[in-house]
Amino acid sequence: MVGSLPTVPLPRRPLDPGDRVSRFYENELGWATVPPRAGSPGSPVRLRVGDRFDVLDVPAEAGRAGLRHLAPASPVALQGGRMRLLVAAGSAEELPGLLDWLEWGALPLDLRALGAGCAMDAPLPPGTRPGGVRPVGRSGVQGAAVWLRPPEPGCAVEASLPTLSAVRGGGGAPDLVRLVDTVATHCHRLRLRRACAQPLALP
């Protein structure tokens, strides 16, 4: 009687670097990820915004001015010439009213908030090299997202994020009002500087 042949396992699919990035954010931080955009091979993993945090997206120069209003553990990302400041979930909905209250609402500012339903490119996880774990096809490419202040695995991010409740003395979180006022001021200065640099249009 012929014994049964041992089964040979099928070859494993190579581990996609994007899978590793998704696992880092989902397992180490508990942050939801969004699949890469359909029809865009090589697009990076994205982080879902609005669940654990919202994002203030500002010019990097304005963002640098706002860093003093953040806790040391507040995550901050850079992408191209933009800085992404993580703020408390729900802050995106508050931003228009907050800008009006601070008397910035009537001016066009290069400042936007990402909230529920939005996503941001996932930066390279901290402690990895471009040749190792990376967002699919984007690490080392100019303009790819990177962490300026990375999140800490095992630490709840919410306690370090700027929030409106800090105005009322709640919990010791950084104050969203001071952060928004500072970055709005610097966005306005950048706008004026660009306007002054434009050559005058002669009739």
Written description of the protein model:
The protein is an alpha+beta fold. It is 26% helix and 15% strand. The protein has four helices and eight strands. The strands form two sheets. A five-stranded antiparallel sheet has the order 6-3-5-4-8. A hairpin with a 2-residue loop joins strand 4 and strand 5. Helix 2 packs antiparallel against helix 4 and helix 3 packs across helix 4. The longest helix has 22 residues. The chain is globular. The N and C termini lie far apart (100 Å).
Compact overview of the structure:
The chain has 203 residues and is α+β, with helices and mostly antiparallel strands. It is built from four helices and eight strands; from the N terminus they run H-E-E-E-H-E-E-H-E-E-E-H. The strands form two sheets. The protein has a five-stranded antiparallel β-sheet. Strands 1-2-7 form a three-stranded antiparallel β-sheet.
Give keywords.
203 residues; alpha+beta; SCO3374-like; SCO3374 family protein; 15% strand; single chain; 4 helices; 3-stranded antiparallel beta sheet
Arithmetic mean of pLDDT? 81
Uncertain segments are 11-15, 131-140
Order of helices and strands: HEEEHEEHEEEH
Number of strands: 8
Number of helices: 4
> What's the overall geometry?
globular
The main β sheet shows up as: 5 strands, antiparallel
Going by helix content, strand content and strand pairing, the class is alpha+beta
- Main β-sheet, spatial strand arrangement: 6-3-5-4-8
As a percent range, the share of strand residues is 15-25%
CA-to-CA gap between the ends? 100 Å
Helicity, in percent?
25-40%
Q: What is the C-alpha radius of gyration, as a whole number of Å?
A: 21 Å
